[in-house]
Amino acid sequence: MKLSHLNKEGRAKMVDVTDKQDTIRVAIAEATVKMKKETLKRIIDGGMKKGDVLAVSQIAGIMAAKKTPELIPMCHPLLLTGIDISFKHDFNIDELTINSTVSLSGKTGVEMEALTAVSVAALTVYDMCKAIDKDIIIKEIKLIKKTGGKSGSYRRTDK
After folding, report:
1. pTM of the full predicted structure?
2. What positions carry a catalytic annotation?
Protein backbone atom coordinates (compact mmCIF):
# COMPACT_ATOMS: atom_id res chain seq x y z
CA MET A 1 0.00 0.00 0.00
CA LYS A 2 1.35 3.41 -0.98
CA LEU A 3 1.26 6.00 1.79
CA SER A 4 -0.07 9.32 0.54
CA HIS A 5 1.86 11.44 3.08
CA LEU A 6 5.30 10.39 1.78
CA ASN A 7 7.17 11.81 -1.20
CA LYS A 8 9.47 9.86 -3.57
CA GLU A 9 12.30 10.09 -1.03
CA GLY A 10 10.11 8.63 1.71
CA ARG A 11 9.82 11.95 3.56
CA ALA A 12 6.69 13.64 4.80
CA LYS A 13 4.61 15.79 2.48
CA MET A 14 1.17 17.33 2.52
CA VAL A 15 -1.24 15.37 0.34
CA ASP A 16 -2.25 17.14 -2.86
CA VAL A 17 -6.05 17.45 -2.91
CA THR A 18 -6.22 19.72 -5.96
CA ASP A 19 -8.14 17.24 -8.13
CA LYS A 20 -10.58 16.10 -5.45
CA GLN A 21 -14.22 17.14 -5.66
CA ASP A 22 -15.73 19.38 -3.00
CA THR A 23 -18.21 17.50 -0.82
CA ILE A 24 -20.05 18.38 2.36
CA ARG A 25 -18.01 17.00 5.24
CA VAL A 26 -18.93 16.78 8.90
CA ALA A 27 -16.99 15.34 11.83
CA ILE A 28 -18.09 14.84 15.42
CA ALA A 29 -15.55 14.25 18.19
CA GLU A 30 -15.79 13.77 21.93
CA ALA A 31 -13.59 14.22 24.99
CA THR A 32 -14.38 12.98 28.49
CA VAL A 33 -13.06 14.81 31.55
CA LYS A 34 -13.18 13.09 34.96
CA MET A 35 -13.00 15.27 38.08
CA LYS A 36 -14.05 15.57 41.69
CA LYS A 37 -17.79 15.96 42.28
CA GLU A 38 -17.19 19.36 43.91
CA THR A 39 -15.29 20.58 40.84
CA LEU A 40 -18.03 19.50 38.45
CA LYS A 41 -20.66 21.12 40.65
CA ARG A 42 -18.73 24.41 40.69
CA ILE A 43 -18.36 24.33 36.90
CA ILE A 44 -22.09 23.78 36.40
CA ASP A 45 -23.05 26.35 39.06
CA GLY A 46 -20.62 28.94 37.65
CA GLY A 47 -18.61 29.11 40.86
CA MET A 48 -15.04 29.09 39.52
CA LYS A 49 -12.83 32.10 40.28
CA LYS A 50 -11.42 32.17 36.75
CA GLY A 51 -14.91 32.63 35.28
CA ASP A 52 -17.43 30.61 33.29
CA VAL A 53 -15.53 27.40 32.52
CA LEU A 54 -17.96 26.17 29.88
CA ALA A 55 -18.11 29.48 28.01
CA VAL A 56 -14.33 29.88 27.96
CA SER A 57 -13.80 26.22 26.98
CA GLN A 58 -16.37 26.57 24.21
CA ILE A 59 -14.56 29.56 22.71
CA ALA A 60 -11.19 27.81 23.13
CA GLY A 61 -12.52 24.78 21.24
CA ILE A 62 -13.85 26.91 18.40
CA MET A 63 -10.54 28.77 18.13
CA ALA A 64 -8.61 25.49 18.21
CA ALA A 65 -10.60 24.03 15.31
CA LYS A 66 -9.69 27.10 13.24
CA LYS A 67 -6.00 26.83 14.22
CA THR A 68 -5.61 23.07 13.58
CA PRO A 69 -3.29 23.41 10.55
CA GLU A 70 -0.96 25.55 12.67
CA LEU A 71 -0.71 22.74 15.24
CA ILE A 72 -0.85 19.52 13.17
CA PRO A 73 1.80 19.68 10.42
CA MET A 74 0.05 17.79 7.59
CA CYS A 75 -3.41 19.34 8.00
CA HIS A 76 -4.64 21.54 5.18
CA PRO A 77 -5.83 25.08 5.97
CA LEU A 78 -9.60 24.82 5.58
CA LEU A 79 -12.50 27.22 5.23
CA LEU A 80 -14.62 25.81 8.04
CA THR A 81 -18.28 26.71 7.72
CA GLY A 82 -19.53 25.45 11.07
CA ILE A 83 -18.11 24.71 14.52
CA ASP A 84 -20.22 23.81 17.53
CA ILE A 85 -19.03 22.77 20.99
CA SER A 86 -21.48 21.30 23.49
CA PHE A 87 -21.24 19.90 27.01
CA LYS A 88 -23.00 17.21 29.03
CA HIS A 89 -22.33 16.46 32.66
CA ASP A 90 -23.02 13.41 34.77
CA PHE A 91 -22.87 13.82 38.56
CA ASN A 92 -23.22 10.03 39.02
CA ILE A 93 -19.75 9.45 37.58
CA ASP A 94 -18.32 12.99 38.00
CA GLU A 95 -17.63 13.49 34.30
CA LEU A 96 -17.97 16.27 31.80
CA THR A 97 -18.36 15.22 28.17
CA ILE A 98 -17.35 17.68 25.47
CA ASN A 99 -18.61 17.26 21.90
CA SER A 100 -17.60 19.13 18.80
CA THR A 101 -19.25 19.20 15.40
CA VAL A 102 -17.21 20.71 12.58
CA SER A 103 -18.38 21.11 8.98
CA LEU A 104 -17.42 22.47 5.59
CA SER A 105 -17.83 21.97 1.89
CA GLY A 106 -14.38 21.08 0.65
CA LYS A 107 -11.78 18.67 -0.65
CA THR A 108 -10.61 17.16 2.65
CA GLY A 109 -12.18 16.08 5.91
CA VAL A 110 -12.54 17.86 9.22
CA GLU A 111 -11.80 15.01 11.64
CA MET A 112 -8.61 16.62 12.92
CA GLU A 113 -10.38 19.93 13.46
CA ALA A 114 -13.12 18.24 15.49
CA LEU A 115 -10.57 16.27 17.56
CA THR A 116 -8.44 19.36 18.14
CA ALA A 117 -11.51 21.33 19.25
CA VAL A 118 -12.45 18.87 22.01
CA SER A 119 -8.81 18.42 23.04
CA VAL A 120 -8.26 22.13 23.60
CA ALA A 121 -11.68 22.57 25.22
CA ALA A 122 -10.77 19.77 27.69
CA LEU A 123 -7.35 21.31 28.37
CA THR A 124 -9.09 24.63 29.03
CA VAL A 125 -11.37 22.95 31.58
CA TYR A 126 -8.25 21.60 33.28
CA ASP A 127 -6.53 24.98 33.21
CA MET A 128 -9.50 26.80 34.70
CA CYS A 129 -10.04 24.20 37.45
CA LYS A 130 -6.52 23.09 38.37
CA ALA A 131 -6.37 25.44 41.36
CA ILE A 132 -9.02 23.35 43.15
CA ASP A 133 -8.56 19.93 41.47
CA LYS A 134 -5.19 18.80 40.14
CA ASP A 135 -6.52 15.22 39.87
CA ILE A 136 -8.63 15.99 36.78
CA ILE A 137 -8.17 13.34 34.09
CA ILE A 138 -8.80 13.89 30.41
CA LYS A 139 -9.87 10.29 29.79
CA GLU A 140 -10.79 9.91 26.16
CA ILE A 141 -10.56 11.88 22.98
CA LYS A 142 -12.21 10.12 20.05
CA LEU A 143 -13.89 10.53 16.70
CA ILE A 144 -17.59 9.68 16.96
CA LYS A 145 -18.73 10.18 13.38
CA LYS A 146 -17.66 11.58 10.04
CA THR A 147 -19.46 11.99 6.74
CA GLY A 148 -18.45 13.01 3.24
CA GLY A 149 -15.47 12.43 1.03
CA LYS A 150 -14.11 9.50 -0.92
CA SER A 151 -13.94 7.15 2.08
CA GLY A 152 -17.61 7.78 2.90
CA SER A 153 -19.21 7.74 6.31
CA TYR A 154 -17.88 6.40 9.60
CA ARG A 155 -19.68 5.95 12.91
CA ARG A 156 -18.00 4.67 16.07
CA THR A 157 -19.72 1.49 17.19
CA ASP A 158 -18.08 1.01 20.61
CA LYS A 159 -19.59 4.10 22.25
Report:
1. 0.93
2. 127
